[in-house]
């Protein structure tokens, strides 16, 4: 009996992971915690706690979907540096997979205006 080669299952993004990745992508490498949070609130109308946001950013970085860099310390932050995030190529591929999955699932579902 030959051993069958299996590929690991693809991990799908959760809703908050998708939203955070999209916000980081919109900020084009200039996003840090508060600007990512503001982007989510302004574009999506969704309030997110800073703790949940940073936990998600950490998880995304561990998965290789975002990368971070530390900026220069600033006086307005009491000499602390900001941590800036950018989406990686793997992160963009994960977003594309998620979008395709959702598009496929929505295919054939009547829109809200069609529903009765």
Provide a compact summary of the structure.
With 116 residues, the chain is an alpha+beta fold. The chain is 48% helix and 13% strand. It has a domain at 15-74 and 81-100: Arc Repressor Mutant, subunit A.
How would you characterize this protein structure?
The protein has 116 residues and is of the alpha+beta class. The chain starts with 14 loop residues before the first helix and ends in a 10-residue tail after the last helix. Strands 1-2 form a two-stranded antiparallel ribbon. It has a domain of 80 residues: Winged helix-like DNA-binding domain superfamily/Winged helix DNA-binding domain (Arc Repressor Mutant, subunit A).
- Return the CATH architecture of the domain at 15-74 and 81-100: Orthogonal Bundle
Structural class: alpha+beta
Name of the CATH class of the domain at 15-74 and 81-100: Mainly Alpha
Largest sheet: 2 strands, antiparallel
Beta strand count: 2
Spans where pLDDT lies below 50 across 5 or more residues:
none
Range of helix content: 40-55%
* Beta-strand percentage range: 5-15%
By DSSP (H or I, 4+ residues per run), the number of helices equals 4
Q: State the assembly state of the protein chains.
A: single chain
- Main sheet strand line-up: 1-2
SSE order in H/E notation?
HHHEEH
Mind telling me the CATH superfamily name of the domain at 15-74 and 81-100? Winged helix-like DNA-binding domain superfamily/Winged helix DNA-binding domain
Taken from the alpha-carbon principal axes, the silhouette is elongated
Radius of gyration, taken over Cα atoms and rounded to an integer in Å: 18 Å
Which fold does the CATH topology of the domain at 15-74 and 81-100 refer to? Answer: Arc Repressor Mutant, subunit A
- Mean pLDDT across all residues, rounded? 88
First-residue to last-residue Cα separation: 56 Å
